[in-house]
Every structure is written in structure tokens, then in C-alpha cells.
Specification:
Blueprint (H helix, E strand, L loop, with lengths): L2 E7 L3 E2 L9 H14 L6 E7 L2 E6 L1 H13 L6 E7 L5 H12 L15 H9 L18 H77 L8 E4 L11 E4 L9 H6 L5 H10 L4 H11 L17 H10 L2
Parallel strand pairs: 2-4, 3-5
Antiparallel strand pairs: 1-5, 3-4, 6-7
Helix pairs in contact: 1-2
Length: 322
């Protein structure tokens, strides 16, 4: 047989005696003491009827006092210290122990009868009466020390249980706080990563839009070459043929001139930059050329000189310009 200490919700307990069996004044006084102490220091004994349901074996008064304390102050701790009996088969043994420990008898002094003697009779006759002190007889008493020891042990066990439970609650609270802190940090890191991704994507979108606009502008500025010129050449007259002969001369496009395009304001900087990119001119040299394009003009490649651009780069432009 084993009885285990526990802290049980008052609302999960079913009394075994009606409340009317106890004095309302005593219950109110006990409830006030519970509110002052915040605990019921005397554990009650319960029988487990279901997983989370109990019936009082001993301690109905304490149960009703705790219930009344909750009614007076709803924020009061709604639990009570108890010992749990797990099996109903063990119940008679505990009830027998409770019955024995609760028995108390009080020693009542009993006066020893005094035999009347001749002397006493004479005293009574003379009106003088003397009474001997009553001699109490030894009465049977019950030693309640075992009960006190048992209650002390119960109180120590319950106190230990409460201390362990408080420690577990503190550890759990610390773990939950740590988890919340870690989760908050993860959320902050994730938010930062998402913000960085959105920023990079916005930058890429802006670059794509810029290049697309440049491309559209370049397409709009592309000139269509005129069709080949058709010339009519008269042939010597022949006896039987008298018709003109059409001779088509090939169209020879004008070779591109970098200096002419550099000086031509009709070509936008965007289109000019695209041409420089196509022949492999780096962005740094392109920026230098575009900066000079808006400031000056050149007559030929001979006087084409820009600070920061070497002869090899100028030679590359001249031979690859299209």
C-alpha cells in the first residue's frame, strides 16, 4: 500500500459529508485563517475516483473551509494539500488508522467515597464538616504523539513536494522564456533577410527597367537604309528590240565613323553607350567618353585624346566601331 502527497484543485474534489454537518461560524473562521496563511496546512486524505476526480476520506471540514475561502477571495489559491489513496481496496486500512488516531479520551477525576466513622458522625452532629480532597483515579488515555508525528511528516512531505513543484515551474518558465527569446531572434533575422532580398530585387528591377528603356530608345533611333537606287540606261537601238534596260547599282553603306558619331548630337548617350559596350569598352572608359562628349568635339582620330584613356583603347575603338 502506498499513499502519495499531492496538490489538488478544490473543484476536482467531491465531499463525503454535507456542509450542514459543520458550524458555519467555524467554517468562516477557518476560511479567514486560510486566506491569511494562503494554504491549508493540514493535508486532507482523498480517494482517487477518476484520473482527475477525488472523494474525501478524511478532511471534509478542511475542504469546505478551502471552498469558502475561494468564495470570499476568488483570486485565492484554488488548490489544497492532500494525500491520495489510489485503490479503493486499501480504503478500509486507512479508515481504520484514521479511526484509531482520532480517538481521544479525557481523564476525569473521580472522588473517592469517604466512609463515615464515629468521629465524622460526631462532627456532623456538631455542625462542623470537613471534606477530604478528591483523589483522582488513573484513567485510560490515548497517546496522540504518533498522530502529531504523522502530521509533521505529512507537512514536511507536502512542503518538499511544493518546493520541487515550484522549482519545476521556475525551470519551465526559464525554458519558455529562452524559447521565446530564440524565436524572436529567428524572426528578426528572417525579417532582415526578407528585407535584404526585397531590396536586392528592387535594385535588379530598377536596372532591368533602365536597360529596357535604353534599348527602346536605341530601337527608336535606328535609321532604315534607303532601298537601292534604280537607274535607267538607254541601250543602242536594235532592229527588233526597243526597250530600256534596268541596271541596279549595289548599295554601299557609308563606313561608320566614331568621331562623327561622337560629335553627332542626334545620337543619344544611351545609344552611344550601347555601341561602346558592344565593342568591349569597360564602364570606366565609357563614363569618361560620355562626359567628354557633352563638352567638346573632335575633327578626327588624330586629335581624339581624353584624359585617362590610353592609345590601345582608342585604337580598339577605331578598328571595332560599328
Amino acid at each position: 500500500m502506498e499513499i502519495s502527497p499531492a496538490i489538488v484543485r478544490v473543484k476536482k474534489i467531491e465531499p463525503s459529508q454535507p456542509k450542514e454537518n459543520f458550524s458555519a461560524t467555524d467554517l468562516n473562521e477557518a476560511a479567514q485563517l486560510i486566506l491569511e496563511m494562503t494554504e491549508v496546512i493540514t493535508p486532507i486524505i482523498l480517494l482517487r475516483t477518476q484520473a482527475e476526480s477525488y472523494r474525501v476520506i478524511e478532511g471534509d471540514f478542511e475542504y469546505y473551509a478551502a471552498l469558502q475561502a475561494m468564495e470570499i477571495e476568488p483570486r485565492q489559491r484554488n488548490r489544497i494539500n492532500a494525500y491520495i489513496v489510489e485503490s479503493e481496496e486499501e480504503l478500509p486500512f486507512y479508515q481504520k488508522q484514521i479511526e484509531v488516531f482520532r480517538k481521544q479520551s479525557v481523564a476525569i477525576p473521580v472522588e473517592k467515597p469517604v466512609e463515615k466513622t464515629g468521629e465524622s458522625e460526631s462532627v456532623e452532629k456538631t455542625g462542623e464538616s470537613e471534606k477530604e480532597p478528591a483523589i483522582p483515579t488513573q484513567a485510560n488515555t490515548v497517546d496522540i504523539q504518533p498522530i502529531m508525528n504523522m502530521m509533521k511528516n505529512w507537512s514536511e512531505q507536502v512542503a518538499g513536494f511544493i518546493s520541487q513543484q515550484s522549482k519545476r515551474d521556475a525551470d519551465l518558465s526559464e525554458q519558455v522564456a529562452g524559447f521565446i527569446s530564440q524565436q524572436s531572434k529567428r524572426n528578426a533575422d528572417l525579417s532582415e533577410q526578407v528585407a535584404g532580398f526585397i531590396s536586392q530585387q528592387s535594385k535588379r528591377d530598377a536596372e532591368v527597367d533602365k536597360k529596357f528603356n535604353i534599348l527602346q530608345e536605341a530601337i527608336a533611333n535606328i535609321s532604315v537604309a534607303p532601298p537601292p537606287e534604280t537607274k535607267i540606261i538607254s541601250q543602242p537601238e536594235k532592229p527588233t528590240v526597243d526597250a530600256p534596260v534596268l541596271v541596279t547599282s549595289p548599295f554601299i553603306p557609308k563606313s561608320p565613323d566614331f568621331v562623327a558619331d561622337f560629335n553627332n548630337k542626334g545620337i543619344s548617350d544611351s545609344e552611344f553607350e550601347m555601341k561602346l559596350n558592344r565593342i568591349g569598352i569597360t564602364a570606366r572608359f565609357t563614363r569618361l567618353i560620355l562626359a567628354e562628349r557633352g563638352q567638346r568635339t573632335f575633327n578626327s582620330f588624330t586629335d581624339f585624346k581624353i584624359k585617362g584613356i590610353g592609345k590601345e583603347t582608342i585604337k580598339k575603338i577605331r578598328h571595332n566601331w560599328s
